[in-house]
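User: Fold both of these, please.

Assistant: Here is the first one.
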Amino acid sequence: MIAETVCSAVAAAGLGVAAVTAWRKRFLSAARIAAYALVPLGLVMTGIVEWVADTAFSPTAWAGFVVLGVAWALFATTRAVERRRGGTRRERKAAARSGQGPAVSPAASAPSLGQGTRPAAGPAGAPRANASEDFSDIEAILKKHGI
């Protein structure tokens, strides 16, 4: 009841502003203001405002929104876990039986760097002999491009 009254008052005020705007010879702006002012009145007349007001103040409706949110969170979480594991359980079992890892894409191309083009790495965590070796990879790349 209050929502319908507020919407009707807003529509009446908007039509008043549109009338003043038309009186100032701004007919295009007045027509646009009148169109915006008639929207709340149309919503009241169709009953949408009453439905929205009943939904907004209904604890059952809010509980329903909470349940929908929990369901969405569960879907999103399970999908994220499934992506981390590399597919569904059925897909992982089929890949294990065939001896292949989980496929990213059936038509995926080979990586751009082959095994032979990677620089040999020393033991993990072992420091290099001197500071000039730190830049050897960079120097090789720059020489390759003529810089």
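And the second sequence with its predicted structure:
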Amino acid sequence: MRAALALAARGLGRTWPNPAVGCVIVRDNRPIGQGWTQPGGRPHAETEALAMAGAATAGATAYVTLEPCSHHGKTPPCAEALIAGKVARVVTACGDPDERVSGRGLAMLRDAGIQVTEGVLATEAERLNAGFLKRVRAGLPLVTLKLATTLDGKIATHTGESQWITGPQARRHGHYMRATHDAIMVGRGTAEADNPSLTCRLPGLEDRSPVRVVLDSQERLPQTLEIFTDGAASTWHLTSRNLRQDPASRIDPRTALAYLAKQGITRVLVEGGGQLASSLLRADLVDRIAWFRAPCVIGADGLPGIADLSVSRIADMRRFARIEMRQLGDDVLETYERL
């Protein structure tokens, strides 16, 4: 199952609105087929693994990171494909909450006489596909807030200078994160001040740039910005008008995220600025924080990575649990999940 999860991770950022799934087929204690969900969501992982294994699947065990689908869509059900392949056993990590599946895939396998084992590395599988699961269950994408700051939480000096606070290894990892998300979001201030391209520029992963989303309530952004002119990736310009909100107020972040989910987006990486980070935290919409910390200090007159949250009581603080910490050159990346 760990091998299947590693395969599934290859699809992150490329399979939306479908989940990123991995499958490994084993017979006589050796793998005979493997696959992961392909770009655009198909072919599915099971189909890829079955095709690799060929006729050798009879009596084999299939390890799949998500419950095999049971409905006819643009591809036939994977549960039917596993049955046709005459596998003897299917091991799954977590169920699929999609109402078209939700237990039906496993029931189909059992009805065909296939032994089914559930819940193997379920926590790891649910974390990997948290975006897909949240979109199905709550109608919202998974939101990861990415911050690259000094030790005292600043993203720029008082003059606005910000390049570069973190070092090259941290920046490369930030580009890798872009490749694993469906969309990258910034506010109007960041788009206008920095004119970023918001693309993945790692060698070999240039085609993995996510959809670029910019929030601009009053449609003030110049159309000459890089995100509108470079053609390197799709750009979605969300305004009060196309979100059907009052143009006199800021865009409601929940409405914006719900809109993205309806378009199929499952994973959003938020890269700035401080006002957008604050609005998402205020609304309790941040699921994860990826905090890059550089070993330097700017001071109180620097620009904060998170704007005012108006927290007056300790009990009202947003709380997160650290799940990972890694060294990236001189910088440290800490990853947190919402409690």
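DSSP finds eleven helices and 15 strands in the chain.
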